[in-house]
Each structure stands twice: as structure tokens, then as C-alpha cells.
Amino acid sequence: MMLSENPFERRLQIAGVFLILGLLVEALCLVWKGPLAFLVFLGLGGILLFAGIVVYLFSLVSIPHSQD
Amino acid sequence: MAVPVAFLLLLILFCVILIAALFMRPGATITRGGKILAFLVLFCLPILCMSMGVSNQLERSTSTEFCLSCHTMEAFGKSLHVDDPSYLAAAHFQNHRVPAGSSCYTCHTDYTMFGTFKSKLRGLRHVYIYYLTTPPAPEKIKLYEAYNNRECLHCHEGARSFEAGAVHNSDPDLLPAIRANKKSCISSGCHDVVHNVATLNNVKLWNGGQ
């Protein structure tokens, strides 16, 4: 699986990877009944989701302005 | 109200599929529709999944099953099945005076503005003690502070058995003292047999109603 050569699209893909990993951790913690599930949910899943959203938002503000 | 786990898992699956599709074709975000889809899939849906997941996890942490999942708490779980009505926790659990599915939380949360929050912080401390230190023996576990009558009165206040009970009315100063938390319900010699985990080996258990 190749990342795009376009910087904006590449950042979107990186954000997507973080978000997918975060969502998978979240799903795992929902079926895991142990007391540590909540900590992993927030500590790992939350950080991955946060990282994905930050990368996505960063990709939006880092688009070069067009010179009209 | 907690969101059903199955619904949340389906939402996560839906979100993962959309993100994967966007990963495969990032060029789709050139169009206005693609940009809106990216915003929904990379921002709105993950936040929705996260917030619903937090709600679900918080709700789960109030369940009796969750509290008893730590080995240290097994004796306290056993005390809920003592076949003796003088055991306060057992009498409440077996007669469904507290919801059987969240019996620990119902009695051990603080009914104050930040009571739930304080309960969660205590829970985090319990997880820390359980996994990173040596947890005390069940019979040595004590409450952080004296049990407040406020927690009992949350349900019993206004109930006929409490307001009109013969013992509660034997002294005119008793009910006001209970309400003011000046005379403890459980440590004044009235309802002082609660879990008593140190003596569980000598008592008969009742496992009906399961």
C-alpha cells in the first residue's frame, strides 16, 4: 500500500491510519471486560484518535493558498 | 443512557470502512463532496465514536460484574449471597433494594454534585493499587471515610419503613440525628453488619434468584 505523493493526500492517509488504529483499539476495549479496558481505551485509543484528528486538521491548514 | 455495544461496534466498522475507502482514493477529496465526506469521516465520526465509547465504558464501570472482576473483591461479592438478613449488603442485594446489576456502585457512590466523578477517581486509584502495588487482604480493606447517611437516605428518605419504623421513632431525636449524619446508620450499633468478609467462611450462602 503506497502513500500518495501529494503532501495533502499523504497527510490525509496518515490521519486515516491513526484513526483506523484508534477505532480498532476502541472496538477491542468494548469487547474486553477487564478493568484495564477503560484505561487502554482512553490512554491508547484516545491518543491515536486525537493524533489522527490533529493530522487531519493540520492537513487542512497547511494547504498552500492559491494565488488568484 | 449507555449505547448498546453492538450498535457502537457497527458504527466503528462503518467508520473504518469509510476511512479505508478514503485512504485508497485520497484524490476524491478534490471535489466539494469529497471534502465534506473527509470532514465527516476523519473528524465528526471518530469524535462521535469516542464520546459514545466513553459513555459506554463509564456505564460499564458501574456494574457489579465490573467491580467484582478484581480478585480482591471476590469476598465482597460472596458477602452479597449470605443467607442472613442481618447482613446489610446481602439483604439489599438479594431483595433488589438496590439494582442487582449495579449494587456496589449504588451504595458506594457519593450522592453529591461531583459524586460520580469522585467515584471514578477512586476507581482509578483501585486499578493502580491492584496492578502496580500489593492490594490489601479483603478483610483489611476499609472505606476512605466514614459512611455518610446521605447515601442511605438517597433511597430511604421518605420511605414508610424508614419514617414510620418503630425503632426509628423510639426517640424523637433519632430521625433528625440520622438526617444530620450525627448518628451513623451503620456504625452506631444499628445496622453494623455490612459485608463482614472476615467471617464469611462460617456463614450459609443463598444463591437463588440467579
Q: So how many helices of chain A? A: 2
Structure class of chain B:
mainly alpha
Distance N to C terminus of chain A: 36 Å
Runs of chain B in which pLDDT lies below 50 for 5 or more consecutive residues are: none
Number of domains of chain B: 2
Largest interface: A-B, 37 and 36 residues
Average pLDDT score of chain A: 89
The portion of residues forming beta strands of chain A comes to under 5%
What structural class do you assign from the helix and strand content of chain A? mainly alpha
Mean pLDDT rating of chain B: 92
Q: What does the radius of gyration of chain A come to? A: 15 Å
Q: What share of the residues of chain B lie within helices?
A: 40-55%
Which sheet architecture does the biggest sheet of chain B show?
none
For the biggest sheet of chain A, the summary is:
none
Sketch the topology of chain A as an H/E string, one letter per element. Answer: HH
**For the CA atoms, what is the radius of gyration of chain B?**
24 Å
Strand tally of chain B is 0
Shape of chain B: elongated
Poorly predicted spans of chain A: none
Which band does the percent of strand residues of chain B land in? under 5%
Describe this structure in words.
The complex is a heterodimer of chains A (68) and B (210). By secondary structure, chain A is mostly helical. Chain A has one domain. Chain A contains 2 helices and no strands. The N and C termini of chain A lie far apart (36 Å). Chain B has 210 residues and is mainly alpha-helical. Chain B folds into 2 domains: 5-60; 64-147 and 186-202, no CATH class. In chain B, helix 1 (5-24) packs antiparallel against helix 2 (32-60). The A-B interface holds A 1, 4, 6, 8-10, 12-13, 15-17, 19-20, 22-24, 26-27, 29-31, 33-39, 41-42, 45-46, 49, 52-53, 56-57 and B 5, 8-9, 12-13, 15-16, 19-20, 22-23, 26-27, 29, 38, 42-43, 46-47, 49-50, 53-54, 56-58, 60-61, 65-66, 69-70, 124, 127, 130-131.
